[in-house]
Amino acid sequence: MSDEDDIILSELNDEELVQQMFDDLYDGLKEEIEEGVNILLERGWEPYRILTEALVGGMTIVGHDFRDGILFVPEVLLAANAMKGGMAILKPLLAETGAPRVGKMVIGTVKGDIHDIGKNLVGMMMEGAGFEVVDIGINNPVENYIETARTEGADIIGMSALLTTTMPYMKVVIDGLVAEGIRDDYIVLVGGAPLNEEFGKAIGADAYCRDAAVAVETAKEWMARKHNQMSA
Questions:
Q1: Phi, psi (5° rounding) for residue 210?
Q2: What is the spatial distance between Cα 102 and Cα 8, in angstroms, rounded to a whole number?
Q3: Are 3-97 and 104-231 in the same CATH fold?
Q4: Are 21 and 58 spatial neighbours (Cβ–Cβ below 8 Å)?
Q5: CA dihedral sign, ordered 124, 130, 131, 133
Q6: 34: number of Cβ within 10 Å
Q7: C-alpha dihedral over 196, 103, 71, 48, to 10 degrees?
């Protein structure tokens, strides 16, 4: 038995607890994260502060190590799942307190394509960064993206494709946005194994994201630009 097994979360001070939560998130320990969130709430922490300092702070480390090839998809999925446990407790409280919105994303795999691991990972990492994510699943025709983005008041539309045969459908969706006169209302991000930067540019997407960590960084950058334009 190591000392590690004897850590009692409630006996740690706030700073130590947040550090421990970083470790627990990294290790994908959902119950420990839920317990940590509840302890901080009992100590009077604002839900938004717990979200940003403990959960997003921890997922940022996971994101960097994923980007740098230190962590891999299974570990990131475990970390994201632990994050979700903490988020489930905070979500209703965040709604009550009217926490500042990072942004809202509609994400889905395009028509003809049923791959979803990459998409799920991006969705989880985006939630980990404090975004609201509406996942429309797989095999989505253009209408699904447009209707959902409209009804949800989304900032970002994210499309995923894993097949060279389904990639071109991304352009169909973007052309659909253009035809409706709403292309400029959304930040359009695309991703998936067969894509590259050139393809993203060619179809008129705002950015191509090679992995989930890049997707989060890109979404944050574009949202910041959008806020700057709105306040200009």
A1: -75, -25
A2: 33
A3: no
A4: yes
A5: positive
A6: 18
A7: 170
pLDDT in tens, the chain (232 residues): 445 567 899 999 999 999 999 999 999 999 999 999 999 999 999 998 998 899 989 998 998 898 899 999 899 989 999 999 999 999 889 878 777 778 999 999 999 999 998 898 899 889 888 899 999 999 999 999 999 999 999 999 999 999 999 999 999 999 999 999 999 999 999 999 999 999 999 999 999 999 888 899 999 999 999 888 877 6
Q: How many CB atoms lie within 10 A of CB 131?
A: 21
Q: What is the pLDDT of residue 133?
A: 94
Nearest residue to 72 (alpha-carbon basis) of 110, 28, 35: 28
pLDDT computed for residue 206 by the predictor: 98
Distance CA 47, CA 55 (A): 11
> Which of 3.30.565.10, 3.40.50.150, 3.40.50.280, 3.30.160.20 would CATH assign to domain 104-231?
3.40.50.280
Query: Would you state the pLDDT for residue 15?
Result: 97
Domain 3-97 has CATH 3.40.50.261: no
